[in-house]
């Protein structure tokens, strides 16, 4: 049973920065389903793409794994000889993820690591790395290093699956896409107040790039090719190959 996201339902005089602590963890799965367009389809696509690159005896990393929903979603198409490694800076998220894996009967070899990605990316023998709305929360100062470390830890012909919110180069288009996104959230039950307060909470935490900026970041730090596999207004999925 999902706990409903009501974090920003009541008007607050002061909005603290968004975090991934206990309060967010309790409602995170509902938050994703109501806040991310085509979330289940993107998860299916991640599994579809990952299955093409996953190699027996290697590892799949989910950086910013939160409550491990992606592991559960992509489990079936991935070869059994692949080890799953989840990395997240929130101990609360990892605890919830562990509970979900145990409750679901998740039987393959896995490991969950508590790590601040701003301080480094612990990757080795990887055939697939997933960053599902994670890079946007890493400080811009460290993003180049993070991407370079991912590329270094990937085996040749391995892939990075990167999904992000992105900015448009044209300001009018950018405003339209954001408007359409907020309309999507309203259709899923969020009020104007909730949308406004969460936007304020994320203002200094979530820093999106333009698609071209992310593309250059990948191509200049160890990846030989990349392209979009998903786009919905200001949401973008990218496949990058080492």
Task: Please provide a written account of the structure.
With 242 residues, this protein is an alpha/beta fold. It has one domain (22-166, 207-241): Vaccinia Virus protein VP39 (Rossmann fold, 3-Layer(aba) Sandwich). The chain is 41% helix and 22% strand. It has helices at residues 22-35, 39-53, 69-74, 91-104, 140-153, 171-187, 192-202, 211-219; strands spanning 59-63, 83-88, 110-114, 126-132, 154-167, 209-210, 225-232, 235-241. Strands 1, 2, 3, 4, 5, 6, 7 and 8 form an 8-stranded mixed sheet that branches. It is globular, with a radius of gyration of 17 Å.
Task: Please supply descriptive tags for the structure shown above.
41% helix, Rossmann fold
Helix content: 40-55%
The number of helices is 8
| End-to-end Cα distance | 39 Å
Task: Just give the CATH class.
Answer: Alpha Beta
**What general outline do the C-alpha atoms trace?**
globular
User: Mean of residue pLDDT?
Assistant: 96
Class based on secondary structure composition and strand pairing: alpha/beta
* Low-pLDDT regions: none
Tally the beta strands: 8
* CATH architecture descriptor: 3-Layer(aba) Sandwich
Task: Write the element-wise H/E pattern from the N-terminal end onward.
Answer: HHEHEHEEHEHHEHEE
Strand-residue proportion: 15-25%
How would you sum up the major sheet? Answer: 8 strands, mixed
CATH superfamily: Vaccinia Virus protein VP39
In total, the number of domains comes to 1
């Amino acid at each position: 049973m999902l706990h409903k996201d009501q974090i920003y339902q009541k008007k607050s005089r002061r909005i603290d920065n968004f975090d991934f602590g206990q309060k967010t963890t309790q409602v995170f799965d509902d938050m994703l389903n109501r806040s991310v367009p085509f979330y289940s389809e993107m998860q299916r696509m991640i599994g579809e793409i990952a299955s093409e690159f996953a190699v027996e005896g290697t590892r799949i990393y989910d950086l910013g794994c939160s409550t491990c929903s992606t592991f559960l979603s992509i489990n079936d198409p991935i070869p059994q000889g692949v080890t799953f490694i989840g990395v997240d800076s929130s101990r609360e998220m990892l605890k919830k993820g562990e509970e979900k894996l145990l409750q679901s009967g998740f039987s393959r070899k896995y490991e969950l690591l508590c790590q601040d990605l701003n301080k480094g990316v612990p990757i080795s023998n990887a055939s697939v790395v997933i960053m599902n709305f994670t890079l946007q929360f890493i400080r811009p100062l460290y993003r180049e290093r993070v991407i370079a470390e991912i590329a270094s830890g990937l085996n040749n012909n391995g892939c990075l699956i990167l999904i992000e919110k992105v900015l448009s180069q044209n300001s009018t288009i950018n405003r339209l896409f954001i408007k359409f996104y907020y309309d999507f959230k309203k259709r899923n039950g969020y009020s104007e107040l909730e949308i406004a307060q969460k936007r304020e909470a994320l203002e200094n935490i979530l820093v999106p790039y333009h698609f071209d900026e992310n593309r250059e970041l990948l191509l200049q730090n160890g990846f030989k090719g990349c392209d979009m596999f998903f786009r919905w207004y200001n949401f973008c999925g990218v496949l990058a190959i080492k």
